[in-house]
Amino acid sequence: MYKVDLPVDQSIERAVERRRSAETTRKARIFNTRLRVMGLDLDALNQQVQEKKHQQNMDMQRDKAFDKLRKYHDEALLQQDIDEREKQAALHSDLTQYWATHQRVEDSRDADLKCGLKGAFRITIPEGELGPASMQILQGEGIGEEQKSREQMKKRERDLQAQIEEKERRHMADKHREMLVSKSLVHQDLRGVQLHALEEECKKAARIALDNYNQALSTERAEKLKDQHRREERENLAELRHTLRSDMMTECGEAAERDVGGGRPPRVLIDKWKGMSPEQLSAIHREREEQRLEKQRRRDAEKIQDAAWELQLLKLSREAEEEERRAAELRREKRLQTDRYNMQLAREQQAYEEYLNKKLYTNKPTKDYFYQFNTSSR
Question: Is residue 72 classed as helix, strand or coil in its secondary structure?
Answer without folding.
Answer: helix
